[in-house]
Write a structure and sequence with these properties.
The complex is a heterodimer of chains A (580) and B (83).
Chain A lengths: L1 H5 L1 E7 L5 H9 L16 E5 L2 E5 L11 H11 L3 E7 L3 H12 L5 E6 L1 H6 L2 E3 L1 H8 L3 E3 L8 H9 L20 H18 E3 L6 H9 L2 H49 L7 H7 L7 H27 L1 H13 L9 H7 L3 H7 L6 H14 L3 H13 L2 H25 L8 E4 L7 H36 L1 H16 L6 H10 L1 H13 L5 H13 L4 H11 L1 H26 L2
Parallel strand pairs in A: 1-3, 1-4, 4-5, 5-7
Antiparallel strand pairs in A: 2-3, 6-8
Chain B lengths: L9 E7 L4 H8 L7 E7 L5 E5 L2 E5 L1 H4 L3 E7 L1 H7 L1
Antiparallel strand pairs in B: 1-2, 1-5, 2-3, 3-4
The chains are: A alpha/beta (580), B alpha+beta (83).
Chain lengths: 580, 83
């Protein structure tokens, strides 16, 4: 305890996307999520280096507390003993603004100017020693992604090279969100950056030119559509057919299943309750690992890999610009593409990311769309896998149903919710070639998070269903749901299991649907209906919990009920249409 | 003229910003009256993208309609195209 007290707190502060998380990781060895788009760090991550407790704060442009990130960053920095301010060498005129605001905290500071390699490439001349004298602070040049300068930074931290900033006189209350103080700060920032950095005229670099070309709708829209097709081919064809055939059918379904079945049945009668619980159709040792490792894990690794590449390359904000005019029709702006796209990964995570949206109204619209009309990664992968089997007309019908519902819902919410939404105002990070190490690390972290998160839910689901099955409660439930399953939707009674599983965890339901399809239990029209219902169906427990926390009980219950209604209405209509 | 009327390749300087939260957000990015920028891309009924002090910024349509700017000159590239 006393050991803890003697440790000093060091806050890492900086603009979004300047490499704070990379530096944090280099110092502490703790993985903080690194992306090439603003708003990756919404919560605080902490780690240790030498005698310091290091806290990674969200990237912000200022500390006035006008949004969640700024509030989180400001409160965290208030509590710190010292501040390490990270700046982007290529954007000093932008980043020094925050530096000057940090002065107001009156804490000892150290500056680290990152991306020096990029500045050199861009022919930007920096006089860091001059700036260091002017601010009366030590400045460490870095190229953190390459590891250059990290040793020097570590030495400076060990030597505690922090100084109280005294070099610049600033007006009081620079934190106040008043225009006068902001203009004054801006003036000072411009003066400093023009004194100590010099930009030479140069032709546009390749990445800038590419970034510009992608913002041209004639090139951008086909490019991103092609990218989506490529993702479909990768996840929907290659992973879900070739790879899963090996992992689920052969590796887990044959090798592992026979091994575990023989092992357990040699000491236990498989027909007893315990036997059923362990190695029955929905058993803890059979269904759970086969679904988790054989089916979902390979699909999710592929999905997270794709998402990490999109994030790190800087393509995501450009997609936001291209889709802005579409989203304004729903009372959202292009920024909403980030949570909605993340929703295809995990709705739970995406619900948290809706915080980046400007107003309460936008957050509510995005949450409703996410919970009702966006399938999560496991579902999405299964949808893609089934799309590989389903004849094109059926798949288009499914796609059209979901898309039109998405549009209708968005439109209706925009029409009837009071208030006005904010406009797009977004800084675009430069296009970068993603670092392989970072992409792989992020994929690994997200995949293991998935296992930690889904594992317990799968176990609970397996226990519940096996028990229901063994005690005959299942037959009753199935009988009870018959008017819904067979009557309304024209699906076999087994789909009751599907719904039950989906309520517990959407992925579990997705996996069950996949096995129903591969067993040939469903005809093509039935697959279409089942897919529709499953996509629209209620969010899983975890999402529901976040939904209640972020949106409040009334909105959350309304969204939950609406998704249930949407699922069965759309499914019923479709069954009618297909004449099941 | 309004920012929403600016065409791709135009240099412009900012004359006035609408009041409200966005004004302060814009100033902190260096997007204050007098600042010079280059329009990189403009979408029909969509956002305007411009380059300001080495930073690319996208601005939604409705907001762009409320920002007043002064056109400075055409880029060299544009002039060449005209020739």
């Amino acid at each position: 305890m006393t050991e803890q007290k003697r440790r000093l707190k060091l806050g890492l502060a900086g603009n979004p996307n300047v490499g704070k998380s990379v530096i944090f990781q280099a110092l502490t060895g703790v993985y903080a999520e690194v992306s090439n788009y603003p708003g990756t760090t919404v919560d605080l991550t902490s780690g240790h280096f030498a005698s310091w407790d290091i806290i990674d704060t969200p990237g912000v442009f200022s500390l006035s507390g006008s949004n969640d990130e700024e509030r989180v960053a400001r409160d965290a920095l208030f509590d710190c003993d010292c501040i390490l301010n990270v700046l982007d060498a290529t954007h000093l005129e932008r980043d020094l603004f925050l530096t000057l605001q940090l002065f107001e905290l009156k804490k000892p500071m150290l500056l680290a100017v990152n991306l020096m390699d990029q500045a050199e490439k861009d022919h930007i001349l920096l006089d860091l020693s001059g700036l260091s004298c002017a601010l009366d602070l030590e400045i460490i040049p870095l190229a953190a992604a390459k590891g250059t300068g990290i040793e020097r930074l570590k030495t400076a931290l060990r030597a505690s090279a922090f100084r109280l900033p005294t070099g610049i006189e600033l007006p009081n209350s620079v934190w106040e969100e008043s225009e006068r103080s902001y203009l004054r700060l801006r003036e000072e920032t411009d003066r400093l950056s023009s004194c100590f950095s010099e930009k030479h005229n140069r032709s546009m670099g390749f990445s800038e030119r590419l970034g510009n070309i992608l913002l041209n709708p004639i090139v951008g829209i086909p490019f991103f559509s092609a990218l989506l097709c490529l993702i479909f081919l990768f996840i929907g064809k290659f992973l879900s057919q070739t790879v899963v055939a090996f992992t689920e059918d052969y590796l887990m379904g044959e090798c592992y299943y026979h091994f575990i079945f023989n092992l357990v049945s040699s000491i236990l009668d498989p027909d007893t309750f315990l036997g059923n619980l362990l190695i029955g159709e929905y058993g803890l040792l059979t269904m759970v690992p086969i679904y988790l490792f054989g089916l979902l894990l390979p699909l999710l690794i592929g999905f997270y890999l794709t998402l990490a590449l999109l994030e790190d390359s800087g393509l995501l904000p450009r997609i936001a610009v291209l889709t802005d005019s579409l989203f304004t029709k729903f009372g959202l702006n292009g920024k909403a593409v980030i949570p909605l796209l993340l929703g295809f990964g995990c709705v739970t995570m995406a619900l948290i990311t809706t915080r980046i949206l400007g107003t309460k109204r936008e957050r509510l619209i995005a949450s409703a769309l996410l919970c009702i009309a966006v399938p999560c990664s496991a579902q999405f992968s299964v949808i893609m896998a089934i799309a590989g089997i389903l004849p094109a007309p059926y798949f288009f019908l499914y796609g059209a149903a979901i898309l039109s519902l998405f549009f209708l819902l968005g439109h209706a919410l925009d029409r009837f919710l009071p208030g006005i939404s904010s406009d797009l105002f977004l800084t675009l990070p430069p296009l970068r070639l993603p670092s392989l190490k970072n992409v792989l690390q992020k994929t690994a972290v997200k995949s293991s998070h998935f296992l930690e998160d889904a594992g317990p839910m799968f176990l609970i689901g397996s226990l519940l269903i096996s028990t229901l099955f063994y005690t005959g409660g299942f037959v009753t439930l199935r009988q009870f749901l018959l008017p819904l399953t067979e009557g309304l939707l024209g699906l076999p009674g087994e789909t009751a299991t599907l719904f039950l599983m989906s309520i517990i965890k959407r992925d579990l339901g997705a996996a069950y649907l996949h096995s129903m399809v591969s067993q040939g239990l469903l005809s093509f029209p039935q697959m279409t209906v089942a897919l529709t219902v499953m996509t629209l169906f209620v969010p899983c427990f975890a999402s529901l919990a976040i939904l209640f926390k972020e949106r409040g009980a009334a909105a959350a219950s309304a969204i939950w009920l609406a998704s249930l209604a949407a699922a069965f209405c759309a499914g019923g209509l479709m069954a009618l249409l297909l004449g099941i | 003229m309004r920012l929403s009327d600016v065409k791709k390749g135009w240099f412009f300087s900012i004359r006035s910003l609408p009041p409200g939260k966005i004004r302060i957000q814009a100033i902190r990015l260096g997007f204050s009256p007098g600042a010079k920028a280059l329009c990189l891309s403009r979408f029909k009924k969509g956002p305007v993208v411009f380059l300001l002090a080495g930073q690319e910024i996208a601005c939604g349509r409705k907001l762009a309609e409320k920002i007043m700017v002064i056109r400075l000159s055409e880029t060299v590239q544009n002039r060449e195209e005209k020739r």
